[in-house]
Amino acid sequence: MDVLLLNGPSLNLLGTREPNYYGVQTLDDIISNLAKITNDAGLTLQHHQDNSEARLIEHIHNATNNGAQYIIINPAAFTHTSIALRDAMLAVNIKFTEVHLSNVYKREDFRKRSYFSDIAQGTISGFGAQGYEFALQAAIQHIQQLKGS
């Protein structure tokens, strides 16, 4: 695996969950598109969505052993609550992009605080599913630079 894509709680409900914020594309639609882009770049993508903080942490901890060179993460509600996920990201020392489908700054005040933004290579918010594509382009560029191509 070159790119690890992690999605947090309730993102399995994309397509039906509050489409005014999150759009109508399903998570499977998004993953299928990203897998094609990754494959076209000669790289591999592994994806995990989980509603469990502990399982997301395990995926992060295993990322290095599984060959991840970059992580794209949408921590969802854990963005605002999980010091444990933040610590896991710091522990593996793999560059990552934080992605949010909605513009968190146009929503409730508690959504404006992220435990990830200050340690991420970048944060993408408010572009819907296209935000994942932006993050993937950053990941591909980073990996190509690592490989010297």
Task: Give a quick precis of the structure.
The chain is an alpha/beta fold.
Describe the 3D structure.
With 149 residues, the protein is an alpha/beta fold. The protein has one domain: 3-Layer(aba) Sandwich (Rossmann fold), CATH 3.40.50. It is 38% helix and 16% strand. The protein has five helices and five strands. It has helices spanning 19-22, 27-40, 53-62, 83-92, 130-147, and strands spanning 3-7, 45-49, 70-74, 96-100, 122-125. Helix 2 runs parallel beside helix 5 and helix 3 runs parallel beside helix 4 (83-92). The chain is globular and about 40 Å long. The relative contact order is 0.20. Belongs to the type-II 3-dehydroquinase family. InterPro entries: DHquinase_II, DHquinase_II_sf. Substrate binds at residues 74, 80, 87, 101-102, 111. The active site is at 22 (proton acceptor), 100 (proton donor).
* Unreliable runs: none
Number of domains: 1
Please tell me the overall pLDDT. 95
CATH architecture: 3-Layer(aba) Sandwich
Helix content: 25-40%
- CATH superfamily assignment? Dehydroquinase, class II
SSE layout and pairing:
Layout: E1 3-7, H1 19-22, H2 27-40, E2 45-49, H3 53-62, E3 70-74, H4 83-92, E4 96-100, E5 122-125, H5 130-147
Parallel strand pairs: 1-2, 1-3, 3-4, 4-5
Tag the structure with descriptive keywords.
single chain; about 150 residues; alpha/beta; Rossmann fold; five-stranded parallel β-sheet; 5 strands; about 40% helix; about 15% strand; amino-acid biosynthesis; 3-dehydroquinate dehydratase activity; DHquinase_II_sf; DHquinase_II; aromatic amino acid biosynthesis
